[in-house]
Amino acid sequence: xxxxxxxxxxxxxxxxxxxxxxxxxxxxxxxxxxxxxxxxxxxxxxxxxxxxxxxxxxxxxxxxxxxxxxxxxxxxxxxxxxxxxxxxxxxxxxxxxxxxxxxxxxxxxxxxxxxxxxxxxxxxxxxxxxxxxxxxxxxxxxxxxxxxxxxxxxxxxxxxxxxxxxxxxxxxxxxxxxxxxxxxxxxxxxxxxxxxxxxxxxxxxxxxxxxxxxxxxxxxxxxxxxxxxxxxxxxxxxxxxxxxxxxxxxxxxxxxxxxxxxxxxxxxxxxxxxxxxxxxxxxxxxxxxxxxxxxxxxxxxxxxxxxxxxxxxxxxxxxxxxxxxxxxxxxxxxxxxxxxxxxxxxxxxxxxxxxxxxxxxxxxxxxxxxxxxxxxxxxxxxxxxxxxxxxxxxxxxxxxxxxxxxxxxxxxxxxxxxxxxxxxxxxxxxxxxxxx
Amino acid sequence: xxxxxxxxxxxxxxxxxxxxxxxxxxxxxxxxxxxxxxxxxxxxxxxxxxxxxxxxxxxxxxxxxxxxxxxxxxxxxxxxxxxxxxxxxxxxxxxxxxxxxxxxxxxxxxxxxxxxxxxxxxxxxxxxxxxxxxxxxxxxxxxxxxxxxxxxxxxxxxxxxxxxxxxxxxxxxxxxxxxxxxxxxxxxxxxxxxxxxxxxxxxxxxxxxxxxxxxxxxxxxxxxxxxxxx
Lengths: 436, 230
Hints:
The complex is a heterodimer. Chain A is an alpha+beta fold. Helix content of chain A is 53%, strand content 16%.
C-alpha cells in the first residue's frame, strides 16, 4: 500500500471525526469563497458604474440651475479658459432658452400644477409676456455644440425616433430636432418648418420617453444664441476629463480659474461616490469577510491537525521505530490533511453557487432618499438617480470557483502540513511508546 | 563467548537518565556488557529496572546520556538523520509487548509497511511468506489487528520485525500480553530466529523465558547485576 493510499484511508478511519473536520472547514472555506466571489462582483459593478458615470465635469453659472436661481451667465471666454486647463480633452456648451410664442403649441397642458408653478399667484409667467389667464407651459429650446447626443433636461439621453440628430455641418444652420410629443401636438414631421422668429427646419424627431422631456427642441448653439439674442452666453458646459483620477483636480482648477463665486461645478466623482457609497461599504465588508474566512479556515485546519496528530503520537512513534523517516511521516499526515481540505473545499464551492447572490443582496443596501432629487444635464445627481445607477449586483459564480477552492485547499494543506512535520521531527519513539 | 562468534552488541559505561520533574531517574546506570552474535540473550529483572530503556538504546530509539553503545562496531548513540533511519529500517527489528500494529492496516499491510518505507519491491510476496513463516494462515492475512487474537497479533508483529531481514531482533516483553501457552510458542519462534543466525535480545521479567536464552543479563535499578551463559 502506498503512502497516498494509506493517508487517504486514514481519513475514513474515524468517519465522525473526519466528517466534523470537513464540515467545519467547509463552512469557513465557503465563507471565504462566497466573500471572494461577492467581492469580485462588487468590484466589477463599481467599474461599470464608474464607466457609466464617466469622467465629465458639469459647470454652470454659480447660483443657477436650469431656469431656476440667478447669478451671471457664463461666457465663451470662460469656456476658452477651461479648455486650456490640463487634463481637459473637450468642452460641450449648452445654452437654454424658453419659447412662449404663438406659432408653436406646448405639448403639455398647464393644468393646476402649471398654474400654481408658473401661471398663478406663485410667480410671474415664463417668457415674461403671458398673463396668468393665457399662461402656457414654455417649450425648452436647447442650443448645443454637441453632435449626436441629446441630453434631456432632468437627466438621461433622448433617442432619435425619425430623421437625424444634429451634425457637424449644422453649427450655424437654423435646423432643429423636435420632441415627439411637441411634434405630434403641432403636426410636425421631418422636413417641416417652424417659426421661431425665423424659419427653422425640422431635421429629426426625438423621444425621451417622458412628456416633459419631449416638450423641447434641440438646435445648434449659435442658432439659439442668434434667435434668442444670447450672444456668447453659456447656460452650462460639460467638461470632458482624460481620466477618473484627474476629475477632482480639473474641478478645482475650474473653480480657481473662473472663481468659485462665478461657477458651480458638479463632478462625476461626486456622483460616483454618492452612488457607490453603499457598494464600496459592502465591498469592504466582503473583503473583511473574505480575510476572516481565510483566517478561520487556517485556524480550523491547524487546530484540527494538531488534535489529530497529538492523538496519534504513538502511531508516529511506531512508524519511526520501524524505519519511517520524518519526511515520510509528514507526507502521510499531509496527504490526510489534503484529502480533508479538498473534500471541504469542493463542498464549499458547491455551496457558493446558491449562497453568493443572497449574501451580495444582503450586503448591499440601496441608497434611499426623497423622491425626485435634483439632476444635472446627463448626470444623475440625486439619491433616486443613485439607486437607479447602482442597480442590482449580479453575482455570476463561474466554475472557476472550483479552481479557487482547490487552490485554497492545497494552500491550507501545505500550511497545516507544518504541524505533522514539526511533530515528526520532535517525537522520540522511545518516549511516546513508553508514555502511551 | 567464543572468539568466532564475537560480540554483536557492546556497551561501555552506558548511562541513560530521565528528568521526572525535579528528580532524575537513572534508568540505565553505568552498564557495561558484550552480547554474542547469533544467540538469544534475555535481559531480565523486575518492572522498571531499565530493560526497555536498554533495548531502546540498542535499537536507536533513544540516545544515551553518556557512555557508548555499539552494534557491529557502529556507535548507535551517534547515529543521526538518514543513518539512524537506515539503521532502524535494515539492521534491527522491534517486537513490542503491546504489539503496536497499526489498527487501520491489515496483517499483511502491517508487514509490508517497513518494506514500503525502505523502498523494497515485491512486498506482497515477501510479506505473505513471512506471515506463513510465523504461523499465520493465508486466510488471516487480510484481517485487521482487531480481528486477530493476541498471539496472532504478536506473530504479525514478529513478521513485521523480520520484514527488512534484520540480523538483530529486539523483543520487549513479547509474551507480556499473552497466555502461557501462546507465550511459549512466541519464545519458540524467537529461539528459531536466533538459530537461523539472527541476534535476538529479549527483555523479560519471566524466569521461564530467561531460562531458555543462551545468555541472561540480570538488571536491578538500572544496573547490571549478573551476566551468565547457559
